Inverse folding.
């Protein structure tokens, strides 16, 4: 299974559309709101994980570009 951030975006907009259904009332609306909270929580974790991966990649790219020669230790 290969999900993408685009897929996540589509799921979030689909959830938004379900919440915007004016015919949804009472228990069905409450159930949809609970579902939306769960989806939002999971989406936040996915986005946080993606941000961490991106920051790690940036760090590794900067490290590869840096001058890796270190000065010799001075004897005292």
């Amino acid at each position: 299974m290969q999900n993408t951030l685009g897929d996540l975006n589509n799921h979030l907009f689909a959830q938004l559309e379900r919440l915007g259904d004016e015919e949804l009332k009472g228990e069905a609306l409450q159930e949809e709101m609970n579902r939306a909270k769960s989806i939002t929580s999971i989406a936040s974790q996915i986005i946080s994980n993606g941000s961490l991966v991106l920051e790690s990649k940036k760090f590794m790219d900067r490290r590869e570009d840096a001058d890796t020669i270190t000065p010799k230790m001075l004897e005292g």
Remarks:
- Residues 3 and 9 are 11 Å apart (CA to CA).
- The chain has a mean pLDDT of 86.
- The chain is about 70% helix and 0% strand.
